[in-house]
Specification:
Oligomer: single chain
Strand order of the largest sheet: 1-2
CATH class of the domain at 58-81 and 136-242: Mainly Alpha
Number of strands: 4
Structural class: mainly alpha
Strand content: under 5%
CATH topology of the domain at 58-81 and 136-242: Cytochrome Bc1 Complex, Chain D, domain 2
Helix content: 40-55%
Radius of gyration: 28 Å
Largest sheet: 2 strands, antiparallel
Distance between the termini: 59 Å
Bound molecules: heme C
Length: 277
């Protein structure tokens, strides 16, 4: 009796295991086969801000803001960054005066004037120069107008893009440098789309944003496509995590504290148990 029960339960377990293996095989065969439309993994780039002690390169952050301002800001908003943040420690660290001057180069919607008007004589909304307290104004007033100007696609806000995408800085670098590379022969491109092997579907509505010489750097840094991409990605990484340097410093200090504390605990342990054996 006991024996037959054992045999039965063994058969039952074998059945379960078999069913498990069969369903695993079935799942394997129904998974989509990798196709040529699947994006390539991002290029591996080395960054100054990687690792537990990595910091931002100040000059790269400042150049990166320039690239955002002169190129990306034509289509992409950066809504979480205020001009005053450009002078914050741990960021591009423009001087207060520089941040003010950068802000003053943008116009933002103004509130009602002394007469309570919100539009001028021609019916246009009132505007005023931005101040350091203002956030970077978006290029389009709403999503519909952004799509209308971009082949129906929405250029996403770039403030958090580095954190929002798998691959982070490597992904954004790959997107902007991969955009506009020649498609493989036989690939059918949809109208108005550009080949980008790193973008989902390998077709992107963004025209290649950067080229050699797209910006001119005041500090004389060579304005190659690679340099521009590195700089703007460094800037966007800071925008995604403005307190990164502070966080790492804090983490390091906590480690030192724990190390010293462990040492003290050990010494007091020795003292308390001294001669107890
Ligand atoms: C002419 C308009 C235009 C400019 C200029 C532009 N972009 Fe784009 N970008 C777009 C559009 C539109 C999309 C959405 C593409 C799509 O969905 O097919 C996009 C998508 C992206 C994506 C992919 C986002 C995702 O969802 O994964 C990144 C990253 C990006 N842009 C970065 C940049 C950077 C950095 C710059 C400046 C160097 C820049 N773009 C300049 C229009 C633009």
């Amino acid at each position: 009796m006991a024996k037959s029960l054992r045999v039965k339960s063994f058969a039952f377990a074998a059945l379960i295991a078999g069913a498990g293996i069969m369903s695993a095989i079935a799942a394997e065969s129904t998974a989509p086969a990798p196709s040529s439309a699947e994006p390539l993994p991002p290029k591996r780039v080395s960054w100054s801000f990687q690792g537990p002690f990595g910091t931002f390169d100040r000059a790269a952050l400042q150049r990166g803001f320039q690239v955002y301002k002169e190129v990306c800001s034509n289509c992409h908003a950066l809504k979480h960054i205020a001009f005053r943040n450009l002078a914050d420690p741990g960021g591009p660290e423009f001087t207060e005066a520089q941040a003010q001057a950068l802000a003053a180069g943008y116009m933002v919607p103004a509130g009602p004037n002394d007469q309570g008007q919100t539009v001028d004589d021609k019916g246009q909304p009132l505007t005023r120069p931005a101040t350091p307290a203002d956030y970077v104004p978006p290029p389009f007033p709403n999503e519909q107008s952004a799509r209308a100007s971009n082949n129906g696609a929405l250029p996403p806000d770039l403030s958090l893009i580095v954190r929002a995408r798998a691959g982070g800085p490597d992904y954004v670098y790959s997107i902007v440098t991969g955009d506009g590379t020649p498609p493989p022969p036989g690939m059918k491109m949809r109208p108005g789309m550009n080949y980008d092997p790193y973008f989902s579907g390998r077709q992107i509505a963004m025209p290649p944003p950067l080229t050699n010489g797209a910006v001119t750097y005041a500090d004389g840094t060579p304005n190659t496509l690679d340099q521009e991409a590195r700089d703007v990605v460094t800037f966007l990484t800071w925008a995604s995590e403005p307190k990164m340097e502070e966080r790492k410093r804090m983490g390091f200090n906590v480690m030192i504290y724990l190390f010293v504390f462990t040492g003290l605990l050990y010494l007091s342990y020795r003292r308390i148990w001294h001669g107890a054996h």
